[in-house]
Design a protein that fits this description.
10-stranded mixed beta sheet; mainly beta; 5-stranded antiparallel beta sheet; 9 helices; 896 residues; globular; 27% strand
């Protein structure tokens, strides 16, 4: 009996073992099958990018194990191994930790970043971001946390793909797509523009963070695994997911492979421009926005308001021209270079009976990288021209509560650019000729959405692809598509009578912009599907003939200052010819060029053994080479240059530059920061000269300090700030004078004025304040004069600075002096022209009902200088009572 039972148990154990073995083999086979994924990714950006942080195959979940493992199998350790392995040792013996999760790799001979990273970082600055693969859903597009802009991915887009994978595009500065509810709700072809890159969220500089997650929701390396043995990250596939590799440039070890660069999007047509001063613009309530004249604004004038996170109090509306063709339009918004500092401006597009929203970080536009003219693309939308279609912006933004009080939301102009017509969807699915993308059978799998992804609350609108044509076969076909007319021949003939009057007053004048008379052959194919059953195809040729006769129209209603404006006549004859094309493969682009960037050899500099300069190389946009050289210099040497080669940058207190102008072979560089000379002959000025004079178009360089001063601003010669010259006296010798006044630096005890030795770089000036006792008793004169020693290269500006600092300790507590501010906190600009000083104040005007106020004190402080006869003071909105003529002027709020 016992033997029988034991035999039964033995058979059962063997049977279980067979089942477990079979199940294990089946699981292994299932895992192998799951990892056999067909490549489906394309480059997510145009041009080239620098290789930055890599995917950590050790722990790609932001847990730190003191090592970084590359897809090649190369490892970098925080703690240097002992004994040392073969390969290149770190620059400093025994130090393998560069900080910020970057460790030294002996096999690569370079620093590798960073521990726990779950994606790939591409170094691009404010450039278009493309969809890396065909997507059937936009899961999210916007701020990770609208109330906290410093965490996680910042502004990002998440796409879902028909094979179950998801891609994330992080740290963007604007988006041009909207989320929709479920897979199959839209079709986004690879190469479609998702927005502009940036440095929002937890970011140390402009770049694209690309994360790829498999159908199980696990982050994977799109480059696969090339190391020996099994991949330590068991969720990763061995194969590369790239159909074509993104184009890379390297400053150190070449870890990831590189491919050909994609072209940038072609320059859009002019289209129709609706300005904030035209009849197509409206605001609610009337005159709720402030006006300011500025050269970067469309028409020279823009509107702005203080943002808020609660219900909006002001709305701007740019109406779609109702006489325009029905179809798909790309929409651009104009961001001026002033009074547009909101990090979360929300634009709502009302079109074809629906509304879509996008978010734009206005603070970073325009810039010297891609959006140089301020026109930011916010997507493509269908318009029916039936009325009630417009772009809306309110003063309710997605800004952080802690900083919102210091920001402005700017409203300027909107541009509509026609892309093509749309037609009803065919009754049966459409299969078109495949492109270079191989036909792929995609098996939908379960998508696990990470819990950290915010729930999308907006809907997707059809958008376009920057690729010339989208033609592909989908098996199975979840969203049938069709090739749309890429070739459009538009030959408008424009006849205009240039009698349009533009005034800074809010007169609304028509600003319909006609396309210049030239023939364009557009090859962009926007393939857009709003639902799984809708496909767009071009329609027949439309030849409208419309001529307007210029007439003089006086419009007294809804105008701030009624102005005579003439309607420009125009004759447009567009002809659109649909022509099928094929998708072109990514091609190399000549828009980048290698340049030199000069730094300093620290060892030779410390030993005072010239030559000090050394040079590295960078890839830069060919249309902004001098700016790129300066930008790269102020970034400083890379990790390899710094730690391996011992290179440094000299800054002398300067933190960057605010402006670079190149005129007649002379580069004018205006630095920011506070000049801090170190007494050395070789300084930042020499390095700026080296970096700029490598370009043949620059013969001389004039460098200006933070006050806009240089020794020789005129003539064909180099020039540096006085503080960087060999004649500069770093600090004045302190002597005591019997005149009690404020010291250059505040102290808690009464002191006397510091007087420098006789030198041409300092001069004594008066600074006028108010006697508190006489002011409270209303017994004039109220003003009192203290003295200060100030630099001769910015005397007038220094006097204003000293006034806004307030009286010194002795003046305040011993003499009883005060300063009057009336709500103003300082000034943003001081301009002196033809004996008239124009000063623009900051803050919020708060009149106190007294005749004597800050305006009287500013005039006293400025009119002590013979070159100033009149003073015009502007409030925070840039307005004053009498901006023209030879007279004094103050803001209306300070008028007695």
């Amino acid at each position: 009996m016992i033997r029988s039972i034991n035999k039964k148990y033995f058979v059962a154990i063997i049977f279980c073992g067979i089942l477990l073995t079979t199940r294990g083999a089946s699981a292994h086979a299932e895992r192998a099958l799951a990892q056999a994924i067909t490549p489906f990714l394309y480059p997510p950006y145009p041009g080239t990018a620098s290789q930055e942080s890599i995917f950590d195959h050790s722990t790609p979940n932001y847990t730190f194990d003191n090592r970084v493992l590359a897809f090649t199998g190369d490892v970098a350790n925080k703690n240097c191994p002992s004994p040392e392995p073969a390969g290149a040792p770190p620059p400093q013996p025994g130090v393998c930790n560069a900080g910020s999760g970057g460790y030294w790799s002996y096999s690569l001979g370079d620093w590798v970043f960073y521990d726990g990273h779950d994606g790939v970082d591409y170094g691009i600055a404010y450039r278009p971001i493309y969809a890396a693969a065909d997507a059937d859903q936009i899961v999210y597009a916007g701020w990770w946390d609208p109330q906290n802009h410093k965490i996680n991915l910042g502004i990002y887009v998440r796409l879902h793909h028909s094979n179950g994978y998801s891609t994330y595009y992080g740290h963007m500065s604007s988006v041009s797509v909207q989320a929709c509810s479920s897979p199959g709700c839209t079709f986004v072809p690879h190469g479609e523009m998702l927005g502009i890159s940036g440095t929002t969220g937890n970011s140390s500089g402009p770049h694209l963070h690309l994360t790829v997650r498999n159908p199980a929701g696990k982050s994977v390396d799109p480059y696969g695994w090339r190391g020996t043995g099994a991949d330590p990250w068991v969720n990763n596939q061995r194969e590369s997911l790239w159909v074509a590799y993104p184009a890379l440039v390297y400053s150190g070890a070449k870890i990831y492979p590189s491919g050909p660069a994609l072209n940038f999007p072609p320059a859009p047509a002019i289209g129709f421009v609706v300005d904030d001063g035209s009849f197509g613009f409206d605001e609610t309530p009337d005159e709720c926005w402030n006006d300011i004249a500025h050269g970067s604004a469309q028409g020279g004038v823009m509107r702005y308001s203080r943002p808020r996170t609660t219900a909006p109090t002001c709305t701007a509306q740019w109406n779609f021209p109702q006489d325009s063709s029905v179809g798909l339009y790309s929409v651009y918004v104009r961001i001026p270079a002033t009074r547009a500092t909101s990090e979360g401006a929300v634009y709502t597009v009302h079109h074809a009976g629906r509304s879509d929203q996008v978010v734009v970080n206005q603070a970073v536009f325009p810039n010297i990288y891609y959006v140089t003219d301020g026109w930011v693309y916010i997507g493509s939308y269908n318009f029916t021209s039936a009325g009630g279609e417009y772009i809306e912006l309110t003063n309710r933004t997605q800004d952080e509560p802690a900083t919102i009080a210091d920001l402005f939301v700017g409203a300027d102009a909107v541009r509509f650019v026609f892309q093509g017509n749309t037609t009803p969807t065919p009754s049966t699915p459409v299969t078109v000729t495949p492109t270079i993308t191989p036909s792929i059978t995609r098996t939908p799998t379960i998508t696990v959405t990470p819990s950290q992804t915010p729930t999308p609350t907006i809907s997707r609108t059809p958008t376009i692809t920057p690729t010339p044509t989208v033609t592909r076969t989908l098996t199975p076909s979840r969203t049938p598509t069709i090739t749309r007319t890429p070739t459009a021949t538009i030959t408008p003939s424009s006849t205009r009578t240039p009698t349009l009057t533009v005034t800074p007053s809010r007169t609304r004048t028509p600003t319909a912009t006609t396309t210049p008379s030239r023939t364009r052959t557009a090859t962009r194919t926007p393939t857009a599907t709003a639902t799984p059953s809708q496909t767009r195809t071009p329609s027949v040729t439309v030849t409208p003939s419309h001529t307007r006769t210029p007439t003089l129209t006086i419009t007294p209603s809804r105008t701030r200052t009624p102005t005579a404006t003439a309607t420009p006549s125009r004759t447009r004859t567009p002809t659109r010819t649909p022509t099928l094309t094929r998708t072109r493969p990514p091609t190399t682009t000549p828009s980048f060029k290698m340049i030199d960037v000069y730094f300093v050899n620290r060892a030779r500099y410390n030993a005072n053994t010239p030559p000090f300069e050394v040079k590295g190389t960078r890839w830069a946009r060919s249309n902004m080479l001098p700016q790129a050289a300066l930008n790269e210099y102020f970034k400083g040497p890379g990790a390899t240059e710094r730690f391996n080669f011992g290179w440094i940058a000299l800054y002398n207190g300067f933190t960057g530059y605010s402006r670079l102008e190149i005129r007649d072979g002379i580069a004018h560089v205006f630095l920011t920061g506070v000049c801090a000379p170190d007494g050395r002959d070789f300084n930042i000025a020499d390095l700026i000269n080296l970096n700029l004079k490598q370009f043949p178009e620059i013969r001389f360089v004039k460098i200006y300090d933070q006050n806009g001063q240089t020794q020789d601003p005129n003539g064909l010669s180099d020039s540096v700030p006085f503080c960087l010259s060999e004649f500069f006296t770093p600090s004045p010798t302190i002597t005591l004078t019997p005149t009690p006044t404020r010291t250059p630096t505040k102290t808690p005890t009464p002191t006397h004025t510091r007087r420098p030795p006789p030198t041409l770089s300092f001069v004594k000036v008066n600074v006028y304040f108010v006697s508190k006792a006489r002011y409270n008793a209303n017994t004039p004169p109220f003003e009192v004069a203290g003295v200060r020693w100030v630099r001769t290269n910015n005397v007038i500006g220094n006097v204003l600075d000293e006034y806004f600092k307030g009286p010194g300790a002795t003046e305040q507590f011993t003499f009883g002096w005060i300063a009057l501010y009336n709500g103003f906190t300082g000034y943003s600009r001081l301009a002196i022209r033809d004996g008239v000083a124009h000063i623009f104040l900051k803050g919020h005007c708060m009149p106190n009902g007294r005749d004597f106020n800050i305006a009287d004190l500013i005039m006293l402080n400025l009119k002590q200088f013979p070159e100033i006869q009149f003073v015009k003071i502007y409030d925070e909105n840039g307005t004053t009572q009498d901006p023209n003529g030879l007279s004094d002027s103050i803001p209306a709020c300070l008028q007695p």
